[in-house]
TrEMBL record:
Name the UniProt record assigns to this protein: Forkhead box B2
Positions of the UniProt region annotated as Disordered: 130-155, 280-321
Keywords: DNA-binding, Nucleus, Transcription, Transcription regulation
Keyword Ion transport: no
Gene: FOXB2
CDD domains on file: FH_FOXB2
GO CC annotation, single: nucleus
Domain of life of the organism encoding this protein: Eukaryota
Gene3D superfamilies the record matches: Winged helix-like DNA-binding domain superfamily/Winged helix DNA-binding domain (1.10.10.10)
Protein's organism: Myripristis murdjan (pinecone soldierfish)
DNA sequence: TAGTGTTTAGACGCCT
DNA sequence: AGGCGTCTAAACACTA
């Protein structure tokens, strides 16, 4: 049984899918969003295997970003020039992975067509188009590139909310607090909790984009995403739910409502996929099992769990520490 | 021009 | 067998 060394992955392919690797990179960032180049960088820094054949895997990675609904594109602010957009995790993608492990993906995160349509024509979009169109001189808000015929789901940015989708990955709650060895927290590093505790995925992105978030948004949120009503109401001043900590893969609810200075922030719409079986805020109990809709970071191992088949895999935490 | 983003297509393995 | 998820390749468009 080979024990992991610092460079254990140097000559072999890490047991993570590109989705996992991308999710790791994004989760590891302070703002929960990264430009493509930084995602590349993260992967190459952590996994020497990917320092070669860059064209191949980077093409695949880009494909995944575009193809998978769990990744959302966030436009750059005018004062942050550069190539490409930022990429973040869809707040509803958390449950993709089992036990918070990046080695196994529970299910594919996919927006429904109706959700794409709803997003596209949402009043929220109108709001932001109206108030913040200046952020997009190019006007390319998600390249609406015709009908989606991809069998596995629309890959274009149609229906994505270029501004709003940027909650930058409300991370995933892990029911029961179980820390899978391949969980993001262990994979990325010890400061993960600190990052998560201090970061405001939603608001940081809002700030990043320079958007004011008026209270009137609450009503819009309620009309668009009734299932997040609790969230919007809470953000309007109602105290946050008692169980506001969702370790290890979650963001404190406080983080959603308060900025770094402890100020209460207004509502921010979170286009969480409607899930009839869930409560107002999916996964807020922190004890959910089953079809939780919280963002559980990923664990992706599409080709079987190495814990089962190939023996105990190398512990990523040992690589990253 | 290089990097970025989208889309299509084929192949493979796993699961039901 | 069929569905699904992933990987790879490639073509193409857009943009800094």
């Amino acid at each position: 049984m080979p024990r992991p060394g610092k460079n254990s992955y140097s000559d072999q392919k890490p047991p993570y899918s590109y989705i996992s690797l991308t999710a790791m990179a994004i989760q590891n960032s302070a703002d929960k969003m990264l430009p493509l180049s930084d995602i590349y960088k993260f992967i190459m820094d952590r996994f020497p295997y990917y320092r070669e054949n860059t064209q191949r895997w980077q093409n695949s990675l880009r494909h995944n970003l575009s193809f998978n609904d769990c990744f959302i594109k966030i436009p750059r602010r005018p004062d942050q020039p550069g190539k490409g957009s930022f990429w973040a995790l869809h707040p509803d993608c958390g449950d993709m992975f089992e036990n918070g492990s990046f080695l196994r993906r529970r299910k594919r995160f996919k927006l429904l067509r109706s959700e794409h349509m709803a997003c596209k024509s949402s009043p929220m979009m109108h709001y932001f188009h109206h108030h913040h169109h200046h952020h997009h001189p190019g006007g390319k808000l998600g390249t609406a590139s015709g009908p989606h015929h991809h069998p596995a789901g629309p890959a274009s940015t149609v229906g994505r909310l270029p501004h709003f989708q940027s909650y930058g990955g409300i991370t995933c709650a892990q029911p029961g607090g179980f820390k899978h060895p391949f969980a993001i927290e262990n994979i990325i590093g010890r400061d993960y909790k600190g990052v998560m505790a201090s970061g405001l995925p939603l608001t940081s992105v809002m700030h990043h984009l320079g958007y004011p978030v008026p209270a009137q948004l609450s009503s819009v949120v309620n009309s668009m995403w009734p299932h997040v009503g609790m969230l919007s109401e809470s953000m309007g001043g109602v105290p946050v739910p008692a169980s506001s900590e969702y370790a290890p893969f979650s963001v404190s609810m406080k983080g959603l409502y308060h900025n770094a200075n402890g100020q209460t922030l207004p509502a921010v719409p979170v286009p969480i996929k409607p899930t009839p079986s869930l409560g107002p805020m999916p996964g807020l109990t922190g004890l959910q099992s089953g079809p939780a809709q919280l963002c559980s970071p990923a664990s992706m191992m599409e080709k079987g769990d190495p814990l089962e088949g190939k023996g105990n895999p190398l512990h990523p935490a040992l690589l990253l520490s």
